[in-house]
User: What shape does this take?
Amino acid sequence: MKLVLGISGASGTQLALKFLEHVPQEHTLFVIISQSAKRVARCEQQICLKSALKAMQRPLNIFEERQIDAPIASGSFGAQAMAIIPASLNIIAKIAHGICDDLMSRCAAVMLKEQKKLLIAPRELPLHAIALENLRILARAQVCIAPPMLTYYTQPKTLESMELFLVGKWLDALGIENHLYKRWG
Assistant: This one.
C-alpha cells in the first residue's frame, strides 16, 4: 500500500513517529511535515523532526508542505490511504472547506476526490463549535475522525502502552493488520 502520513503542527508529533515505527515494512510511506510540526517537535521533544524521520530504520519519502508539485499531490500517483497525525485545527479547517494551498491539504483533497481512506487524529482539547462543525463536515465526507483518546479496558500500565493502543486503532481504521494492543474479549 502507498500510505501518506501528514504531520501537522498540533501537539503530539511523538504520536506520528510512533505510528511510523509500527506501519509494517511492506507499505511504502510518504511523509509530509509542516513548518509548525517542526516547531512543535523542537518544543515538546527537543528534536529536529526531519532528522528524526531520516534516522528511522525504514525507507521514507519525506516532503515539506510547500512541495505542492510532489508526485503524491496527484490522484494518478495512486496513494491508497492517508493519515494526518496529529491533525491541527488549521489543517482540519482547510480540508473541510476545500482549501488546497499546501501539499498536506492537497493530498487530503486527492484522497477525498479519489474516494480513498483518509484518517485524521485531531489533537485539541476542548473543541469549540467551529472545530466540531468542521469535523462534522469531514465525517459526512467519509473521513475517519480518530482523535487520540485513551482507553482503560486494555489496562495500560505505561504511556507507551497507551500510545500503542492509539497506533493500533489507527492502523485498524486504515485496514492494516497489527497486534499492538489487547483486543476486547
Residues 159-173 form the longest helix (15 residues). DSSP finds seven helices and six strands in the chain.
